[in-house]
Every structure is written in structure tokens, then in C-alpha cells.
DNA sequence: ATCCTTTTGTGAAAAGAATCACGACTTCTA
DNA sequence: TAGAAGTCGTGATTCTTTTCACAAAAGGAT
């Protein structure tokens, strides 16, 4: 529980982790903050600063040892412990997640899904069982994280049931801003807003004048 | 092109817009920054500051007039002009977007999709035609924005074709960090990273001690 | 009319994040 | 072995964003 890692840094850690994995698969054994910067599109000084919160992980004049860094992040990101995840709502988006292979390079596993539609219940997508949403409380035993892909109108109600069932983290894909007790963490991903905000930036902001093909 | 709206503010605008719409549908004619704060979960001082970049939109002791504010944002967010969008890659995620009704409360419309699979090409999902990906350059005429939902390995190659075809904004759902010329804007949404970072925050950060049911 | 309550808009302060710039150390080359 | 080149780690700086806190204005009540 090392406090003091800035949130901005924490958000970049999984990104670094994935690219280091790529590097290792490519057989590279060392990497500089400059190379990494090119790959992940984050300023090299920022990368060095990010890493430095965890101590001196690199060597001057050499860079970072890929394997060592990877091992370090594996521990830091809890890659050894698997986090079980449930999908709530097997619509188009929910189905997309069921097919998404989170396990690769990741410490999370989708272990069950729920839906209100009796036609979907009982099926099995990619080995993941779909349960009736009425059984939420009963089935959610070893699951701490839920991905919410249901209609916005259901969001708050279902959220309250999730919380009672012991969920501690919610990835909310509905447009609703849900309320939760303070021990539950919610991340919002609002697809319509992302699209709209991209368009706004295109229309109103002179481009930052960086990157090239 | 009013420069000087902070990016953080710009990202919240579509959110405000949507909630104001909700309020209007509920028949409310006035709203205070405090009420709005409760609904969108953004500090009320931040909301007032955000609004203030556009001038004095409210009245002291009263709050904001919903209709007036809405009209103002409609103009600011370009709600009157429709932005055409193309989906690149009709897999599970791409299909989910095709079914997603962006038009409601939104100034964007999905007008076409592309896929490499001959079995998908020629079909029509929710009135949106699916073209072969080879025809990208030919078909993308009045489209400025693309949503990228293809395998990561294809991302950079297809991106370069999109850019040549005149695309100016890309919503990238692949894990690849794509390179583009500086006049093209890219927003990354990396689902695996979002999930991983939620787990990291759950494990490492004492909860911020706010919100309640 | 008067007073009380509500609520904005914004200076000023604080917090958070990115970037600059350079000393120190390492590796590489000859 | 010596000199050149490369790269980290980090103080200091700058930039961005959030939050505090309060004067000024408006509405509402009696």
C-alpha cells in the first residue's frame, strides 16, 4: 500500500507493462526511456519520473533491463494474483467483452455473466456461464469486480445489488453516473462522450504538433 | 476557435450537455451547480468554473436556466452539425457500436462500416452498410472520424490508409499505440488497461471518502 | 420594504502533473 | 586506458487543474 504514486502514473503502469511484455517476446533484453517513449507515446522524462517512484530501476548509460523491470511490475501490478470479473448484461457490448481475451497480458479473468433475458441465460460464451440476473447475490462469491453493460435505466438499481453482493470495483459502460458507498471504486467509460469529445477537440483545438508517421 | 478552454473542461462538456438534456425532459427549468454536481459527480466549484469560461451563464441566487444553457451548449458543441463516423472492423466490439444509438443526444452518426471478412461485407446492420476494407479510400468521402475496432496487428497499417483517405479523428479501441501525422487527432480507449487500472486502484488506494447511496 | 437565504463568478491558494536541464555514472570504441 | 557517447534520476520550473472562500447579486418570505 505505498501511497504517493501519482494517479497519472498509476494509470500508465498497465501500458508500460504491456509494452515491456511485447519487448520481451521480441527477445529484447534492454530498453531506454527514449525507445519506450516512442512506442507508448509518452514523454521520456515522464517515463523516467514514473519509474523513479518505485526506486532506481535503471542503470545510467544503459537503460532498463526488460526482464528485471517486468518482474518488478508483475509484483507491483499484482499480476500473479488473478482477479475474477463478472459481466453484468450480455448485450452487444457485454458479448464483445466475453470474447475479449483479457487473460493475455492481464491479471483479470471473466468468470461469469448475468442477463435478464431468459433466452440468453443458461448459455455458455467462451466457457463463461450466463446466469439469470436474479441470482446475482447468490452467484457473486469470489468476484470483486463487475463490468456494467446494461441499459442506463437499470444502472443504479443493479449497482446497489452489486454492492450488497460484495463487489468493490465497477467498470461502468452505461451513461448513468452511479452512486456507490465510499468503499467501492467506479471507473466510467462513456462511449458517446468519448466520441463527442473527440469531435469537440477536432473542431476547437489546434493540433499539438507532435508525432509523425 | 476560442482557445483557452482547458482540456479538462472540454472533456466534461458533453457530460453536462447530456444531463441538461435529461433535466429538460424532466421538465425542470432551472438548476444550480450544486444539483448538477450531485448528478454528474463533479465538484460544484469546478462546474461553475467550467461554465464561467464561456461567460456569465447563470444568475446569482437563482442558478442556471436549463433551456438557455442547453441552447448555448448546443452551439458550442456543434450539436447542429452532424459528424459522420465510420466503423473500421465489424467484430464484436464494432457490432456493438453499430447497435449503439449515438444519434440520441449526440451530434455523430455512424454512416458506414468496413470489414475484411467477405461474409460480413454486403450486409446491413441497423441500416449501416458494410463495405470491404479494400474500398476504404473510395468510400470514405464525407467522413472525418473513424472508430477503430480491428485486431491490434492491423492497426498501424489501416490507420495509414485512413489518414490518406482524409480521416482527421480516430477513436482507437485497439491496444496498439498508432502513429499519425500531426493534423490527425487520436483518442485511445484501451479496455484491458482500464480494467487493469481499476484493479490497481482498488488494491493500492485508500478510497477518497465521498459519495453515498 | 426589509431581511434572510441561495447561489453565482472569480481572485487566490493549493494540488497535481509534465517538462527542462544537468550532474553522475555506465558502456562503448579504439 | 582514455575519451566520447548514452542514459538515468531528480531538483527546479512551468503548466494545468482543482478547490477554497467570499463579495455581490437575486430571489423569496413576511
TrEMBL record, chains A, B:
One Pfam assignment: Put_DNA-bind_N
Subcellular localization, as worded in the UniProt entry: Cytoplasm
Domain CoA-binding positions: 78-177
Keyword terms: Cytoplasm, DNA-binding, NAD, Repressor, Transcription, Transcription regulation
UniProt keyword Cytoplasm, yes or no: yes
Domain of life: Bacteria
Signal sequence region: none
Cell membrane recorded as keyword: no
DNA-binding region: 15-54
Residue stretches in coiled coil: none
InterPro entries: CoA-bd, NAD(P)-bd_dom_sf, Rex_bacilli-type, Rex_DNA-bd_C_dom, Tscrpt_rep_Rex, WH-like_DNA-bd_sf, WH_DNA-bd_sf
Binding site for NAD(+): 89-94
Family statement: Belongs to the transcriptional regulatory Rex family.
Protein's job: Modulates transcription in response to changes in cellular NADH/NAD(+) redox state.
Self-association state and partner proteins as the record states: Homodimer.
Protein name per the record: Redox-sensing transcriptional repressor Rex
Organism: Tigheibacillus jepli
The encoding gene: rex
Amino acid at each position: 500500500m505505498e501511497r504517493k504514486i501519482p494517479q497519472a502514473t498509476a494509470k500508465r503502469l498497465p501500458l508500460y507493462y504491456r509494452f515491456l511484455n511485447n519487448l520481451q517476446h521480441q527477445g529484447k533484453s534492454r530498453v531506454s526511456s527514449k525507445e519506450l517513449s516512442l512506442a507508448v507515446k509518452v514523454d521520456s522524462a515522464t517515463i523516467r519520473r514514473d519509474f523513479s517512484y518505485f526506486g532506481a530501476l535503471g542503470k545510467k548509460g544503459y537503460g532498463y533491463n526488460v526482464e528485471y523491470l517486468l518482474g518488478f511490475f508483475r509484483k507491483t501490478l499484482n499480476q500473479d494474483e488473478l482477479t475474477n470479473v463478472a459481466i453484468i448484461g450480455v448485450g452487444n457490448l457485454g458479448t464483445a467483452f466475453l470474447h475479449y481475451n483479457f487473460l493475455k497480458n492481464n491479471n483479470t479473468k471473466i468468470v461469469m455473466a448475468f442477463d435478464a433475458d431468459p433466452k440468453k441465460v443458461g448459455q455458455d460464451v467462451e466457457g463463461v456461464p450466463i446466469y439469470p440476473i436474479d441470482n446475482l447475490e447468490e452467484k457473486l462469491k469470489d468476484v470483486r469486480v463487475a463490468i456494467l453493460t446494461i441499459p442506463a435505466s437499470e444502472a443504479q438499481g443493479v449497482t446497489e445489488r452489486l454492492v450488497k453482493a460484495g463487489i468493490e470495483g465497477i467498470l461502468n459502460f452505461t451513461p448513468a453516473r452511479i452512486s456507490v458507498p465510499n468503499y467501492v471504486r467506479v471507473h466510467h467509460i462513456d462511449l458517446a462522450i468519448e466520441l463527442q469529445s473527440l469531435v469537440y477537440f477536432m473542431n476547437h483545438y489546434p493540433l499539438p504538433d507532435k508525432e509523425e508517421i
